[in-house]
Amino acid sequence: MPSTDIIGDWEKRTGVLATMHNKESVISPILKEGLGITITVPHDFNTDRFGTFTRDIKRAGNQLEAARKKAQAAMMLTGMDLGFSSEGSFGNHPTIPFVQSNLEIVVLIDIKNDLEIVGHFRNSNSQVRSQIVHTPEEAVDVACSWGFPKQGVILRQSETSSRHIYKEITTEDDLRTMSEKLLLKWSTKSVFIETDMRAHRCPKRMDGIKQATLDLIKNCKSICPKCTTPGFVITDVVKGLPCNGCGLATDLVKETVRCCKKCSYQETQPIENKNSAEPGECQWCNP
Ligand SMILES: [Zn+2]
Ligand SMILES: [Zn+2]
Q: pLDDT tens for residues 178-227?
């Protein structure tokens, strides 16, 4: 099926989004607007079995594999052949030292056309925070400094305990009451409080998911020049942008490589708006 047909075909189809954390509120309108795809959400779909941020259930495979499994499970459950899911991860930024980051991906799987296309967004201001507190007031102060109640918090006995995790706290009063109860109950006389990173309790993640969905739309509209399949995206980069001081190759990216997963056609392009590196960015001039 030529690409124009695939994109035209999407406009007539309904896709299923694997979510139980209200991600449809940001993903669905963008898919409708950008690709004309109508989204449904399965009832009683438990995505927690694919892994949780509270570390009580380990994630199934890497980020992309986990996203794939969720989309496939939702398609299986509903009998649909167009599925979407999103998956977030947190960790050290891959290129900026000592900076935490949050990578959100949104995946489209089209079984009918045998296609998988992924959108990405990396946020370097990750919202992951945690602290040990000893009084209910301290719990409330810390939570509010993190943006509570919009940004959710979780209470547990310690960083590593996976029993007794309290997630559904929505008001300052609830937080105060619950902390008080746990401080009396637990022999440590302390509570481990951390940010709730589930999408519906983390506005920053919701925004990252929105940006990743927009990236997915852009990637879907990027067409292979040879076979016209959607999803002609950057799969690799070539480093070695020359320095305009010494002329040597730097570690900066000079070209991007786009590749079609269908026909394997590749295209290398120089990066936009930059044909040389500054001596300040050069590891030879500025070691
Ligand atoms: Zn192609
Ligand atoms: Zn140089």
A: 999 999 988 889 999 999 998 999 999 999 999 999 999 999 999 999 99
Q: Where are the alpha helices (DSSP H) in the chain?
A: 3-11, 24-35, 63-78, 136-145, 172-185, 203-220
Closest CA to 179 of 228, 136, 132: 136
- Tell me: do 101 and 44 sit in the same domain: yes
Q: Which position has the token pair 């925004």?
A: 207
How far, in Å, is the centroid of ligand 2 from the Cα of 257? 25
Contact residues for 197 (Cβ-Cβ < 8 A; gap 6+): 53, 88, 90, 127, 128, 205
pTM (predicted TM-score): 0.85
What domain range is 23 assigned to?
Answer: 3-125+200-230
Please check whether residues 223 and 241 belong to one and the same domain.
Answer: no
Going from the Cα of 266 to the center of ligand 1, the distance in angstroms, rounded, reads 8
My answer on whether 13 and 28 are in the same domain is yes
Whether residues 12 and 59 share a domain: the answer is yes
Q: 121-176 pLDDT, tens per residue?
A: 998 877 789 999 999 999 999 999 999 999 999 999 888 887 788 988 999 999 99
Q: Is residue 164 part of a domain?
A: yes
Residues 220 and 182 in one domain: no
Amino acid (1-letter code) at residue 139: A
Question: For 19-40, how does the pLDDT look when each residue is reduced to its tens digit (9 = 90+)?
Answer: 878 899 999 999 999 999 999 9
The reply to whether 287 falls in a domain is no
* 29 Cα–ligand 1 center, Å: 29
> Could you tell me the distance, in angstroms and rounded to a whole number, from the CA of residue 286 to the centre of ligand 2?
7
